[in-house]
Amino acid sequence: MTITDFSVILPVTLLTAWASILLLAELFLPRAQRPFLALLAALGLALTLGISLAQSAQEFAPGFGGMVVRDGFSNFLNVLFLLTGLFGVALSYRYNQRAQIERGEYYPLLLFSVAGMMLMGQAADLIVVFLALELLSFPLYILSAFAYPRPQSEEAGLKYFLLGAFASGFVVYGIALTFGASGSTDLARIVASVAAGSANLPLLTAGAGLLLVGFGFKVAAVPFHMWTPDVYQGAPTSVTAFMAAGAKTAGFAALLRVFGAAFPALAADLSPLMAILAAVTMLFGNLIAVAQTDMKRMLAYSSIAQAGYLLMAFAPFEIEAARTMAVAGALFYLLAYTLASFGSWGVVIALEKDLDRHLSIGDFAGLARRSPWLAAAMTVFMLSLTGLPPTLGLVGKIYLFRAVIEGGMVWLAVIGALTSVVSAFYYLRIVVNMFMREGEPAVEREWWLEFAIGAAAVVTVVVSLWPFPLFEWAEWAVMKLF
Amino acid sequence: MLLSEANPAAGLFVLVPWIVFAPVIGLLINAFAGKRLGERGVGWVASLASGAAFLVSALQFYALTLHPEGAQVKIAEWIRIGQLSLDWTFRVDSLSVTMMLVVSGVGTLIHIYAIGYMHEDVRFKHDPARFPRFFVFLNLFIAAMMILVSADNYLMLFVGWEGVGLCSFLLIGFWYDLDTLGRSSWANSNAAKKAFITNRVGDFGFLIAGFLIFWYMGSFAFSEVFAAAPEVAKTHPWVITAITVFMLVGVAGKSAQIPLYVWLPDAMAGPTPVSALIHAATMVTAGVYLVTRSFPLFGLTHDGQYIVATVGAVTALFAATIAVGQYDIKKVLAYSTISQLGFMVAAVGMGAYVAGMFHLVTHAFFKALLFLSAGSVILGLERGHHHGHHAPSSPVLPPQGAGNSLSHGEIDRVKEEVFDPGDIRNMGGLRARMPVTFWVYLIGALALAGIFPLAGFWSKDEILLDAFLHYPHVYWLLTLAAFLTAFYMGRQVWMVFFGKARHEAAEHAQESPSVITIPLIILAALSAFGGFINLPFKGFHQFGYWLEHTLGAIEFPPFNFMVAGVSTVLALGAIALSWFLYQRKPLEHGQTDPLAKPLGLVFVGMEQKWFIDEAYQFLFVQPYRALASWLAQKVDWDFWHEWFHDSVLVKGFVTLARLLADPVDLGFIDRVSYWLSDAIRASAETLRKLQNGFVRSYALSVVLGVAAILGYLLLK
Q1: What is the ipTM of this complex?
Q2: Chain A contact for B694, CB < 8 A?
Q3: Domain map of chain B by residue range?
Q4: Residue B481 falls in which region: left (phi positive, over 0), alpha (psi -120 to 50) or beta
Q5: pLDDT digits (tens, 9 = 90+) for A378-387
Q6: Does B681 contact A230 at a Cβ distance shorter than 8 Å?
Q7: β-pair type (A61-63, A68-70)
Q8: Residue B8: which pLDDT band, with cuts at 50, 70 and 90?
Q9: Beta-bridge partner residues of B71
């Protein structure tokens, strides 16, 4: 082990250590001082973010014999995951007090999950990928059931855990098949063995298919999505917000890393499959979202549909020129999605006064009069999720659609565009409710929450007007991926 | 940019942009903080800004004495289009520095004077809040004028040229809602518009000259244009003549020459400091400067020179005849200014650039002096007028800086009798009541009349000498004009300061405070001794030698006693004649001008300005109005609006829209989209039923997915 090894995993290590200390700190803090934990957690995330940003200037380096790696891709994702964590803390802080789930384990679990996500971004070996997957998933299972005397929460946690375990099984089996076919779990060596012709291709393809199932479960792609509405609805909303952004991004990190590296060899087989998966997910997610009246379930289906748009990034892998753009576009879109998703979940939290009552779409009526800034921010998020100007969602969609069209799959882009139109129905219905219907919504005024929502809205609009630095960053991130 | 390490004086050249920055800073301060600074603060900020520009100009002068080659100071890139490459560059040479010194020097004195003048003026006009605005405009003018004189290319010069035109417009219309007598009216704003529009005609000529320069010489920069000019003159001789003639059109607009001089008399509607600074001393001389600056072009075309010189000389005489018949103290000076500008234009047209610039400088001194003194006289009468109406309570003026003390209602808004404080028929006998103003006015008048050894004598004589040697017809025209000049100035001095008061306001007139009289005294000293910078004797042509750095070697003709003698005798004779007519038996109240009878119709012509305004009204304004109203009524309203827009466009659009709305939109598109949305809703409801909440069916879905994927991958 060398200094480089430690330097590569320094952010993950730091965050894990910080979370462990936080667990202990809870023991020494009197009950009245519990809110202090949130601050400490945020501090740890901010510290790690600082280190990650500082490391972005350093050279790309593998660590631990090629098990993990630090490159532009992992750097981009580390920043994104840490921001996700910070958003998660900001949204949880007052909500947990209101929901009376302010238990000491909450923030450490959240930090562990973030550490797992970061490890996922850095993994260069299938074993590490699996390790990261479990590290990020287990805290989420627990967090979903965190409001435990409440039956919906317990049900959500159990469902998530059972189905998650089921999906993990496929991942393990996929890894085993891959090892069997190529003699290695190291991504670089798998690719090399395919290139050398020594790999058993049918076996490898089957392994890749099973891995796809596992990761598809994490990102909530159809038909592995069915847990999503139940879990999103039942889990505490602060957890849902964190899960919707973080777990999905981590799943895509795994997909992009594993399939990005392995894909050139298997593109002919996997490309059409991915395209079909994307198309089905977009159609299914958007269509069912139309029929929802419960806000949390609607957002759950929305997040399924968004996974479909992101899956489009894998369709044009056969054409080399489109490949880089597609992955960069996916990273860009992940950022746009993270902001809009967190923002809209934040607004849900602000409106969710009575925790046992489901928040319906009608509860948004009259929000523009009651709290105009909140309504304006929600409008921004809805526009961004639909892909309308002036938001990052539009820029990201253009980026992705362009990659798909350059990859020669015009039909997929057409489906994407058509389903976007469908999605406008249920996203803009919220806006119509807020601005054109009378109502008396009860709004919680919470400083941290409002700050997080405001920041997400401002960034979504402002960066969309001048997105070029972000483009450059995303393209730098995928520079050495292939 | 020339910067020698050896001599630190050369480093002073880089300061030159401050001649523009300083007044800009001043105007920004006054524009944003003017209300808070109070009158004193505003006045001193503006004066200091102008004074700073003068200081920088003086430093440039000093640097130039050590480095006669001058400098070009570039502060920014301006235009880069294809071959065209223009910078924002300041040119420091003896010609531009001369103009800088005059503009900022005279300008600063007038700023100080204006502190006192405007303090009273805004109160006579019942609107003290307008005080800061005046100084903002005045600083803006200094900045624009400095850009004009320090430009290194024609386009930058044009920016300054338009800038001073704008300031002139703003300041003529400073009391835009009044007329010159302070009554509510649009007369002043009409005067401002007249000045602006007339100048547009001139600017049009300037622009054409600029286009020709760019087309044939390929550049706007002075050095490149002048370098290319001789070649163009060989291949296309008419081009140079055309450029100079179109330039003359611009000069005629800005410097009030025939046929575009008509705006300048009306421009006297502006406050008196404006008349002095812009419409006598500086802006109107921009045309003279332009011709001098373009001397390499004019030197190439004899025809152009001939036309310019003749236009100048005819203007000089023509305006002088009108001045004889005017009664308004400022109108007389305005026509006198046109006449004197004619002298300068004639001089630079003849190629006597040193004489022209020399007269420009001395004229700036004595004409500014005359205008400012006239302003002092007018204020004196206003004070007297108010005194007469509000005696015995001490009238007019609250102490300086007392701000908005008008509210005490001492000043009536209603004037029962219209009183014109600028009419010399209302004056008389002011010598005793306003002694300082009298003495400085006398010095200015004698300088303008060309009496030895005052400044005007030397500069006018140099022009006359040059004309005598090269252009006899110009000489005769100018000599006659000089005679009339001395006559109308004599008439004015006798009528204003001698005899007895013809109006009660003149009886109670009061001398102005020192903030007004001190600038007058300084200008009087300059008018008296300013001529010594260029005595017509060998070795004394200081001003000529100075300009040689810019204009190249100059020949100085020897002093000619005949020419000087003739003009002096004529001037003295004219003064004697005016004494005979106006002072031997002073005018009574209501008496007609003693010239009216002997001259008959000629005097009517002089009095009525030869009906030029009426002629222009008939020839240009009325046909233009007729055309405009025809275009507005027939073409724009009847044709475009009523027929094309309402009948063709709107009706057509409405018909088409109805067609699209009913069968196409409602019948087809709406039906399809309703069907689509119903279909989507129905399918959503169906799909929704799959979500039954049981983990086993969820797991089944996953298994089915796995089967589909593996099936596809392995069986494909």
Answers
A1: 0.89
A2: no
A3: 369-392+421-602, 613-687
A4: alpha
A5: 999 999 999 9
A6: no
A7: antiparallel
A8: low
A9: B92
